[in-house]
Design goal:
Helices cover 44% and strands 13% of the residues. It is an alpha/beta fold and 504 residues long. The model has no long low-confidence stretch (mean pLDDT 85).
């Protein structure tokens, strides 16, 4: 059934009796939710009630009937307006049933809207030219369907007094503690200091120079989280890496076999141990869900439509997923009069809107996003001493919007030669430095308090070891400080003596 006139009458009757409750349904019920195939009667009654309430006027059946008469609407069986409105006012409506009735009517409206969208889509498909490219056909269908999705998310967008529900929320959380906010990653120190950097609705950005390993980090992190929580990953590649190259990297990371043996095909001649490691990978990945899509040259609207189509078709409404995007940059298409920073800012805006407001479950975000961006020339570390390296937001290329709208932002950089010499090789090859956090983990002191290194105070960071497309954690800056200060449990000259930082 795509309409229910009885439900419409019940809702209108409830509004006539209790107009002060209109605010509770105003965020998701409008005149278009009333059926109007033969008459605009119920649409008009609702609109009059709504306008009267919004203008602060009192509502009664006489005023409503007079306004309807002035419009000149016709009624079934030649019923006059006064009698029809009076019949609504005399209906027995259970007190406090307004929201339930409104939500039931919304479900009917949803079915009607989707039914009409299907009809519109069928008409478009019939009239479409046989020469139309495949991607344009899909986009036309997407535009019809996606234009209606947001209309049917029942939520409460009206302002609320947060203190009204404070006691209930805090007491409920105390009775049902949460150990993890979002999905925790594979690295203990990052989890403890910054919490989950893959929370639903959040965007985490990794900033690095080309060739440093930002793609490797994002893919490694998303893959590990996907495996731990059985959550699918959709990986958008902005024309940087082929599917085959990505497959080689992932296999090298999981198997531990050097990538050059895989890329050359020489792994079969490299000995029984190597062959066994490679073939053991097939069992490890058979249940993993990592989807690759090349978005090189696509505009941001097409990317967002692809994301929506993938989510509803492959993941399913209400199920979590991870979006990995390598990386934020302008496409090769003409950008008109827009500057590069404007285009990038628009990309961030639209992706943020999609993961925070467009794709929801029970009114809450369901997609976590991790992406990367190039640093500018200030982010160069090659041939520099540590004191000349810039480790702040000034190295972020193109747009301040990236900094404004992301939830977490990290700098990933190679260690300088003097840093490796001073610290020792046991503390890894890279530094992972936080420059923005919307939320932190349980080790707040580790995230915020500066660390004494020699004569200077420095912001804490996490050390990472990059090897054969695999990444391990090698402690934070506090561990480095303890080692330099003669810490008994830390010996940077002997990597095997370091604690197992990745033991999460």
């Amino acid at each position: 059934m795509i309409y229910n006139l009885e439900l419409e009458k019940q809702l209108l009757a409830a509004l006539i009796k209790e107009p002060d409750l209109f605010s509770e349904i105003a965020s998701f019920i409008d005149h278009d939710d009333f059926y109007s195939e033969e008459s605009n009667l119920h649409k008009t009654i609702f609109t009059i009630i709504k306008q009267s309430i919004q203008s602060g006027e009192e509502i009664d059946e006489i005023i409503i009937a007079q306004r309807i008469s002035s419009i000149g609407l016709s009624f079934e069986d030649n019923l006059n307006p006064s009698d029809y409105i009076k019949s609504l006012a005399l209906r027995k409506v259970p007190k406090g049933n307004l929201i339930k009735t409104a939500k039931e009517l919304k479900k009917v409206s949803v079915r009607r809207g989707i039914y009409k969208a299907a009809q519109d889509m069928a008409k478009q498909m019939k009239s479409i030219s046989p020469e139309t490219p495949y991607h344009e056909i899909i986009e036309k269908a997407d535009n019809v369907y996606n234009s209606r999705i947001n209309l049917y998310e029942i939520g409460d967008d009206s302002p609320v007094n947060i203190y009204d529900e404070m006691e209930e929320i805090i007491e409920d959380r105390g009775n049902n503690p949460i150990k993890e906010f979002g999905m925790m990653g594979p690295h203990k120190k990052i989890n403890e200091m910054y919490g989950s950097i893959l929370r639903p609705g959040n965007i985490t950005v990794v900033v690095a120079r080309s060739g440093v390993g930002k793609t490797q980090f994002c893919m490694h992190y998303a893959t590990q989280v996907s495996s731990r929580y059985d959550v699918p990953v959709l990986h958008f590649d902005n024309g940087e890496m082929s599917k085959e190259e990505l497959v080689m990297r992932q296999c090298a990371s999981i198997s531990g076999v050097p990538s050059h043996l895989l890329e050359s095909g020489e792994w079969r001649q490299a000995g029984e141990d190597v062959v066994n490691k490679v073939r053991a990978t097939w069992d490890k990945v058979k249940n993993l869900k990592f989807y690759y899509y090349n978005v090189g040259g696509m505009d941001v609207d097409s990317m967002v439509n692809t994301l929506k189509r993938f989510y509803y078709a492959k993941v399913g409404r209400g199920n979590p997923m991870i979006l990995s995007f390598d990386y934020i940059k302008t496409s090769n298409e003409s950008s008109g009069n827009k500057n590069e920073w404007q285009i990038v800012g628009e990309m961030v805006d639209k992706f943020k809107k999609c993961v925070q407001k467009d794709i929801l479950h029970d009114g809450l975000p369901i997609i976590s996003m991790i992406t990367s961006v190039q640093s500018n020339r200030y982010g160069i570390t090659n041939n520099r001493n540590a004191q000349n390296v810039v480790d702040d937001e000034s190295i972020v290329s193109l747009s301040d919007r990236i900094i404004q709208f992301c939830s977490h932002m990290f700098i990933l950089r190679n260690k300088t030669a003097d840093e490796i010499e001073v610290e020792g090789g046991g503390f890894g090859t890279h530094k992972f430095i936080n420059i923005k956090s919307r939320h932190l983990g349980k080790d707040i002191a580790g995230a915020l308090e500066p660390v004494q290194i020699g004569d200077s105070l420095r912001k804490n960071l996490v050390n990472l070891e990059f090897k054969n497309f695999n990444i391990t954690e090698r402690g934070d800056l506090r561990d480095v400080a303890r080692s330099l200060d003669g810490g008994a449990d830390i010996d940077a000259s002997d990597p095997d003596s370091l604690p197992n930082f990745d033991n999460v």
